Amino acid sequence: MPLDAAQGHYLTGVLRLQAGDCVLVFNGRDGEWQGRLAGTGKRAELGIDHQVRPQSRPGDLHYLFSPLKRARLDYMVQKAVEMGVSRLQPVMTRRTQAERVNLDRMHANAIEAAEQCGILGIPEIMAPVALDRAVAAMESERHLVFCDEDAPGADPVAALVRDLEDGGWRQRRLQGGSAGLPLAVLIGPEGGFDEEERAFLRQRPRTSRIALGPRILRADTAAVAALAIVQAVAGDWRE
Question: Of 142 and 44, which is predicted with more confidence?
Fold first, then answer.
């Protein structure tokens, strides 16, 4: 299997691997395989030996976010991949400040995070859309969790559990259904959602509005906090 110039440089120039050394490889579809390096630099290739791990069952957790500036967006994408997100969807809100999104850079950061953490799945990277379009396109059975510092109540875990139970989540689990539900998490811009956006989101069925504790979090920090809550309550952490 031929390697591109960047991959060859990383393996032989950065990691200092030599011909014959073993490398674990994946493509996001066919599991993890052991390869063996042949050649160096621009002429480096991998021979595939045997499968090490089968492809893991993908989760069903979408992450919708107002775009951030470059370094913080890089961090957010990497952490979202680590937290098991299956789709990254930039959404444009009325208070969004970063108007351009580099999708290729997002994809590169997603791959890097998966490589470093041994994750076999790469999330879908979607083009930016307006908030109302993103929510309208969401399947009716997907439970949306949107994080709002003005949400009532101090316990986001209790609020989410209550909303999910009202929607029959626990009954589905008792009947033998998967603990993992189709979920989506939405984080707004630094300035938060405006009142019309809050009203629009609250009118959607299967939607929870939660605060993330007593402190105001930066959007990239809020991403990690919200995804941890959702995974712990109803995501693949329970499987």
Answer: 142
